[in-house]
Amino acid sequence: QLKKKTWLTQTNTSMKQIDLLCKVVGPAAAGIFVASFDEHDPLKTITTNVMHWYHLSYAAIIVGILNLISLYVEYTCTKKIYELVPLLTVRRGYAKEVDTDTASVIAAPSKSSKVTTPTDIHRQQSDNTMVAANKHKVDKEKVLDEAKIGSDDSADQAQLTTIGCGIFQLPYGLSLFLEQPVATGGLALSLLYLNILSFGALMTAYLVWIGLDYGTIGTLRGVSSVVGLLGTVVFRISSERRGLAVTGMWSITFQFVCLSLCLISLRVHNFGVALWLLVIGVCLSRVGLWVFDLTITQYMQEQIPEEIRGAIGGVQKSLNSFFDLTTYALGLIFSAPEQFWVLVAIGYGSVGVAMLLYFFGIFSRRKTLAL
């Protein structure tokens, strides 16, 4: 069990590092690439040269081609994983019916075989895949029969799509999500997406309004991403030494404290001081954000049953997207730059609520929930 947790921590950290590194390198490389096609004179506010836009269209086409290549690589890797893990072809609930002999063959090579070369390893993997595929083929009719029997109960299954009473109905996926022991942690994570202090579109517009140039904003965004990348290293150290519960608690608290600096900056009249407080608060808060994100991710991997983990993960993504979209709706309502403080206050409050949800829902109950 300890080895499994360690493996999850290492894998989650590595994946998040790759994700954040791409978010740092990608925009920077794209900016440099597009700039190489840009012949616009910065001293001119309006560009009338047709060739300028003609050259930029080349840059857009090449960036689009690179995105298509990346998509091909992603799908190829996904297909490769699907082929290397035969149990991924088995329907949910069917995997439990795989007999012990087949499972043992898939899990590891037989004791009698001696795998000493890459060719032997590849041959053993192929044999394992064929065993699983044949087993799946033999029992295919049984699976279809079970599906046919299950279709007779479709009316009963339809009643499970929602839950509630009267006019108030919760989708079944959401109700299932709320029944999980780490549901409050998931809600806390989704509330963090209501925070606009992240060098995103709304904050960038505000920084431009107060007089910062795009080069400076881009540099600050890069610094913020690098600091967030360091947060993944902190997560690995903290989770191994202090455990997930404590790691999640200090990370969300740290983010809340850092964002307090941002809130204070809006009340400071000295422009330089206010700007430094805002930038430092946002950059340092990235550490708490990504440490907390990784904490909740690993909690869900450990605590959510495998057969419903996909559904719960889908609900979590939907909640994250909902609150992220809400920030743009609020940006339309409070669109004046002078109203930026309202958006900051709402985001700051959402992080505070998230901190309370985690404390009362998970941290204070960690022994009861055996977390």
Q: What does this 3D model show about the protein?
A:
- The chain has 371 residues and is an all-alpha fold.
- The chain contains 14 helices and 2 strands.
- It has helices spanning 2-37, 50-84, 100-107, 118-138, 140-151, 154-158, 172-178, 183-191, 201-209, 214-242, 244-265, 271-303, 306-333, 340-361, and strands at residues 162-165, 168-171.
- A two-stranded antiparallel sheet has the order 1-2.
- Strand 1 and strand 2 form a beta hairpin.
- The model is unreliable at 94-119 and 135-160 (pLDDT under 50).
Compile the SSE list and pairings.
Elements lengths: L1 H36 L12 H35 L15 H8 L10 H21 L1 H12 L2 H5 L3 E4 L2 E4 H7 L4 H9 L9 H9 L4 H29 L1 H22 L5 H33 L2 H28 L6 H22 L10
Antiparallel strand pairs: 1-2
Instruction: Give a quick account of the main beta sheet: strands, pairing sense, barrel closure.
Output: 2 strands, antiparallel
Order of helix and strand elements from N to C terminus: HHHHHHEEHHHHHHHH
Count of DSSP helices?
14
- Relative strand content: under 5%
Shape: globular
| Structural class by helix and strand composition | mainly alpha
Entry keywords:
14 helices, two-stranded antiparallel ribbon, mainly alpha
In short:
The chain is mainly α and 371 residues long. It has helices at 2-37, 50-84, 100-107, 118-138, 140-151, 154-158, 172-178, 183-191, 201-209, 214-242, 244-265, 271-303, 306-333, 340-361; strands at 162-165, 168-171.
